[in-house]
Amino acid sequence: MYGQVVPDDANLLFCDGYRTGRKQYPYPQRSDRYILKWLQIRTGALRRGKRVDSAITADYIQKIDVDRCPVTRGPLTHSTTTGTDWSIDRCNNDRGYVPGNLVVMSTQANAAKSDLPFDEIVARGECDAATDGLTPAEWQRMTAVIAPAERLAHGEPPAQFLLGAPFVPGQPYGLPAQVQAALLSAVFTYRDEDEVDERINVIHSLCLCRKEARRAYDRLMQDMFQRMIRQRRSWDYWGLKRPLRLFIEFWVNLTPAMRSEIGLDIGFVPMGKNDSNPIQPAGGIGLRVH
Which of 48, 68, 104, 271 has the fewest CB atoms within 10 Å of its CB? Predict the structure, then answer.
């Protein structure tokens, strides 16, 4: 259907699905790297008996895509058959391909992680020498990248606020944390490309009906622009006391309806027991990874 052939080792279930699809789509469909990656995931999952949640689509993969590997911090390539090529990793290997358990990283980092348990990944970050091609610092970043999914797998709620660590697309976060990420990404866009991200104006418009929220938002944005542009701060911005306090002041002055509207605007994806009913993302947060 997408110009792909049936694998030689395809099982009966796979072949039945392929024949059904051919009847529905008799002509080849246009594909891109997100569709091809989605097909690759589904094919591999069928072979290994892993579950692929219906929410994992080509659009979902595009929303969690990044330009740089969050572990090695090197730029990601595509179809070069090298260790810098992008790949989709299941953070917790005991879970399937479900929202909150997938992250984009380089094939080098993915291969090094393999099926290691979380405790072993943490331990490798405490070593003095490189292991399986990753330095201790890279193993520490690996730990930070997959930690949110590990917490979710053990029944803990997703992180509600960013406290200075980089935001990792695809990992489980509460609505406040996703709003923090969207705002910071919008300021990145202004700083690096001299373009005003529409999300800044949309959220400001939503705050106009509530004076306390508007004032709190204005104070937050003034601080963000000053520190992000003049001081060249990155995700560590949320680790500072004043920015976090300003964001919390802004957040507590929002009504539940205003929070829901902001969630719709940024493409909030709820995960975990402390989140509300899912809101279908319209365009995703659109994050810039620094």
Answer: 48
pLDDT digits 0-9 by tens, 266-275: 888 676 544 4
- In this predicted structure, what is the pLDDT of residue 277? 36
User: How many angstroms separate the CA atoms of 117 and 54, rounded?
Assistant: 26
Minimum mean pLDDT among 30-39, 55-64, 207-216: which range? 30-39
Contact between 1 and 26 (Cβ < 8 Å): no
Q: Are residues 16 and 58 in contact, defined by beta-carbon separation less than 8 angstroms?
A: no
Owner of token pair 């659109």: 286
pLDDT of residue 68: 94
Burial class of 281 by CB neighbour count within 10 A (0 to 12, 13 to 18, 19+): middle
Question: With pLDDT > 70 as the criterion, what percentage of the chain qualifies?
Answer: 82
At 55-97, the pLDDT tens digits run 999 999 999 999 999 999 999 999 999 999 999 999 998 888 9
Residue ranges of domains in the chain, CATH in brackets: 12-153 (3.30.40), 157-290 (no CATH)
